[in-house]
UniProtKB/TrEMBL annotation:
Name used for this protein in its record: Ribonuclease P protein component
Catalytic activity: Endonucleolytic cleavage of RNA, removing 5'-extranucleotides from tRNA precursor
Matches recorded under PANTHER family: RIBONUCLEASE P PROTEIN COMPONENT (PTHR33992)
Annotated keywords: Endonuclease, Hydrolase, Nuclease, RNA-binding, tRNA processing
Assembly and interaction partners: Consists of a catalytic RNA component (M1 or rnpB) and a protein subunit.
Domain of life: Bacteria
Pfam families given in the database record: Ribonuclease_P
EC number: 3.1.26.5
Amino acid sequence: MLAKANRLTSADDYRSVVRRGAKVAGAHTVSYLRSRDAGADARFGFIVSKKVGTAVRRNLVRRRLKAACHELVAEGMTGVDVVVRALPTAAVADWPALRAEVRRAVNDRRVVHGSSSYPGGGPRA
C-alpha cells in the first residue's frame, strides 16, 4: 500500500496533474506526469471508471496499479506527481502487463524531460 505521503488526495491535485502534466498513452492506461521539486516525495493517483468493469474488477485493477507504483517508490523515485487512468482494456490485462506499462510511462517521461528524479539519473542513451 502507498503511504499517505505518496498519494494524491485532493481533486485540485488530480486536476493539476491531468491538465498540466505530460501525457503518456499505453494499451491499458493513460498516465499523466508532472514534475515536482527535486527530493519531494513521488505522489500517485488512480482513475478507474465504471467502463473498466464491475466493482470487483475495478478494485483489482486499482490494486495492481498501486502495487506497481509502490515498487517505484521503493526503488527511490522522487520529484513527480503521477495520475494513472485505467482504460477498459485494463480489465483483462495481467499484472506484468500493467506493471510494465506504468514503468514505461515513467521512463518515457524521464527520456522526454531529461529528469534525474529516477534512479540512474538523466536520459537514457
